[in-house]
From TrEMBL:
Protein name per Swiss-Prot or TrEMBL: Sugar kinase of the NBD/HSP70 family, may contain an N-terminal HTH domain
Organism: Cyclobacterium xiamenense
Keyword Cell inner membrane set for record: no
Pfam families the record matches: ROK (PF00480)
GO MF terms, alphabetically ordered: kinase activity
Keyword annotations: Kinase, Transferase
Length: 414
């Protein structure tokens, strides 16, 4: 069974039964990929085909080494049923995590496990046509050096910043060269399926799927790096909004900070007072006031390219100004989060990104702000947790997006 390009396979197939079997096999593969190991009777319910047919197709898939037996499932009375799962090496996905200044990539197997080292490259995101070529070259290099046969890497997931409309396959902020959609251009270069998503949404989905294993239904992911990314999961589904841009939390006009302009060009945005960018701006002021502080010493030689992580490191080492910067930023961020809680009543808020590394130095002021600004009844039921996936969250996000959508259009079109 060829999983690389179902469309080509389908065009070649002639008989109606043959096509139907192929689509049904694809449905089984999709369920096993998305939900993990399962029994024949559960697969039968999920896919909506009869048990004898499922058994027949599973036998085929076992012979083709796409599916393997993975022990026994829970007994429903009587003998424990066989558990089926995808063979880990039946296909692979390339995950790419693009940020404003660099890219990361690694290959993952059908169990969503990383099978190569994470490679990184300096690759500024912009709208130059050759940036797409550079992304493709980097990806090709990662696949080639993995030793995995090229044709086994069947899709590419890309998590990236910007206003991303993942359905239309367009990023309205970056990589805007060419007449075709970004996804169409990437698919032409990669010669395989490509899925793109806004980074905060991809990361939230990864935390939901892989970090918390679908234990909560209504989840917000807040990722505080230079800006503030928000992903919204409502009833277990990523919420994208009408045009695909839901979650532009960073540019909520919440503050009266007229003197500070935001990266979006407006004033008074949450980002201008409560992001990594704000932390760095405040840290530069603090360094100018006290050149002997821990913060000043850690920043020596890096004043121009000061990163939020250095301020977090200084706070962890006990620098009072760094601690109070994080406290101020946390209070403002908490005020923003209070609005999200009032609006969306989430069960769980996952906090990630460079600023979340500050741990209690940022969660304590956030909690304090929530005590002040949100209603107790709503707040009490919302837990706040730190990201479980850490620095790999962007790559896992790219994989999570592929995991959700792969084979979907082929299945839908039949
Ligand atoms: Zn803004």
């Amino acid at each position: 069974m060829n999983l690389i390009d179902p469309k080509i396979v389908l065009e070649k197939k002639e008989g109606v039964v043959e096509i139907k079997n192929y689509i049904n096999k694809l449905k089984i593969v999709k369920e096993l990929y998305t939900l993990g190991n399962n029994t024949a009777s559960n697969i039968c319910q999920l896919v909506g085909i009869s048990l004898p047919t499922v058994n027949l197709l599973l036998t085929d898939l076992l012979e083709e080494n796409i599916v393997v037996k993975e022990g026994r499932g829970q007994s429903q009375g009587g003998r424990k049923p066989d558990l089926y799962g995808l063979a880990p090496d039946s296909f692979f996905i390339l995950g790419m995590d693009l940020s404003r200044y660099g890219a990361k990539a690694a290959v993952y197997n059908t169990k969503n496990e990383k099978v190569t080292k994470v490679k990184t490259v300096k690759l500024p995101l912009n709208n130059e046509p050759d940036t797409l070529d550079r992304i493709h070259e980097f990806a090709r290099d990662v696949i080639q050096s993995s030793g995995i046969p090229d044709e086994k890497v069947i899709a590419v997931g890309i998590s990236m910043p910007g206003l991303v409309d993942s359905v239309a396959g367009v990023n309205h902020t970056y990589l805007k060269s060419g007449k075709k959609s970004l996804t169409a251009q990437l698919e032409a270069k990669f010669e395989r399926k490509v899925f793109i998503e806004n980074d905060a949404r991809a990361k939230t989905l990864a935390e939901f799927k892989f970090g918390n294993k679908n234990t909560h239904k209504n989840v917000l992911g807040i990722f505080v790096d230079w800006g503030i990314g928000l992903g919204i999961i409502i009833d277990e589904k990523l919420y994208r909004g009408y045009s695909g841009f839901a979650g532009e939390f960073s540019h909520s006009p919440l503050f009266d900070a007229k003197e500070i302009s935001c990266s979006c060009g407006k004033r008074g945005c949450l980002e201008s007072v409560a992001s990594g960018g704000a932390v760095v701006r405040l840290a530069k002021e603090a360094i100018a006031l006290d050149k002997d502080s821990i913060l000043a010493r850690l920043s020596e030689g890096k004043e121009e390219n000061l990163e939020p992580a250095i301020v977090v490191e200084a706070a962890m080492a006990g620098d009072q100004r760094a601690i109070s910067i994080l406290s101020d930023v946390g209070l403002d961020l908490g005020r923003g989060i209070a609005i999200l809680i009032q609006l969306l009543n989430p069960e769980l808020i996952i906090l990630g990104g460079a600023i979340a590394e500050a741990n209690q130095y940022i969660t304590t002021p956030i909690q304090q702000a929530l005590n002040i600004y949100s209603m107790a009844k709503l707040r009490e039921k919302t837990s706040i947790e730190l990201s479980k996936l850490g620095k790999e969250v962007g790559l896992r996000g790219a994989i999570a997006i592929v995991n959700e959508h792969i084979f979907e259009d082929t299945i839908q079109s039949h």
